[in-house]
Design goal:
It contains six helices and 14 strands. With 261 residues, it is of the alpha/beta class. The strands form three sheets. Strands 1-14-2-3-4-5 form a six-stranded mixed beta sheet, covered by helices on one side. The termini are far apart.
């Protein structure tokens, strides 16, 4: 049964509207000294049609955060753009991020309402980075920001997209399934969503179903491989049955550190 107000937590608790702000520090082996303390806000899977007030709250929290970048890893919609998304994007457009708000599309955006989603993002100044890279110059060093919408929009030249040089390489990938390939190519940080953290989780068991070829291997949280780090967001919204059980929505504030920093 679902938890009732004032009752102790039970096996099944409706956390659909229980927004969390998760604060994490991530050590990157190749982080330039000048980028120690670099701050990112990561949010994903807004799926704004269900629980629109939750998506708006997430956007407002992201916009109010003192940070260098706000990065959104796709799935703004379940099926279509509504006026609710305009409100969410307007809130994100008020972000204080020094280097702006950037995003990619997810599978729902691409499958159902791609042109409308892209036009909405453009209207509100959220910069799309579809299967391309953008080099950002900061006082502390260069950041190469890379957007990957593969496999829904295929990447043909992975090494060319990742590039060479001394820049910090941060990748937005809607699915964590691209992480192992990206790690082999020498990126530093991959931000992903798509999994919703399972959306339904059971105590002592965790996620039940995760849309990934790695199963529950990358369902939520932080992972390391070949010198790269992956952060998978639980996301904000839901699909299918519009509930999140024992799996609250989140935005994540990430602070980057050098090893031992």
């Amino acid at each position: 049964r679902l938890a009732e107000p004032g009752r102790r937590r039970r096996w099944l608790e409706d956390t659909t509207r229980a927004m969390h702000v998760t604060e994490i520090g991530i050590e990157l082996a190749r982080l330039p000294a000048g980028l120690e303390g670099f701050r990112i806000v990561h949010l994903s899977d807004l799926h704004h049609e269900f629980a629109q007030e939750v998506a708006l709250h997430a956007a407002e929290l992201a916009a109010e955060s003192e940070c260098d970048l706000v990065l959104v890893t796709g799935d703004f919609v379940v099926h279509r753009v509504t006026p609710g998304l305009e409100n969410v994007l307007a809130a994100l457009g008020r972000s204080r991020a020094a280097l702006g708000v950037w995003g990619i599309l997810g599978n729902h955006d691409i499958w159902h309402d791609r042109d409308a989603v892209e036009h909405a993002l453009d209207r509100h100044g959220l910069r799309r980075i579809t299967n391309r890279a953008e080099d950002l110059v900061t006082p502390g060093g260069r950041v190469r920001l890379i957007g990957v919408e593969h496999p829904w929009r295929r990447v043909e030249d992975w090494p060319g997209l990742i590039g060479a040089g001394e820049a910090l390489r941060i990748v937005l990938s809607h699915t964590p399934d691209n992480f192992r390939r990206l790690a082999r190519l020498g990126v530093d940080l991959v931000l992903a969503g798509h999994t919703h953290g399972g959306q339904w989780r059971l105590p002592f068991i965790g996620s039940l179903v995760v849309p990934s070829r790695h199963g529950r291997g990358y369902d939520q949280g932080v992972f390391e491989r070949d010198g790269a780090v992956l952060h998978v967001s639980r996301g904000v919204g839901s699909v299918g049955i519009p509930l999140r059980i024992n799996c609250p929505p989140e935005i994540t504030r990430v602070t980057l550190h050098r090893p031992g920093g």
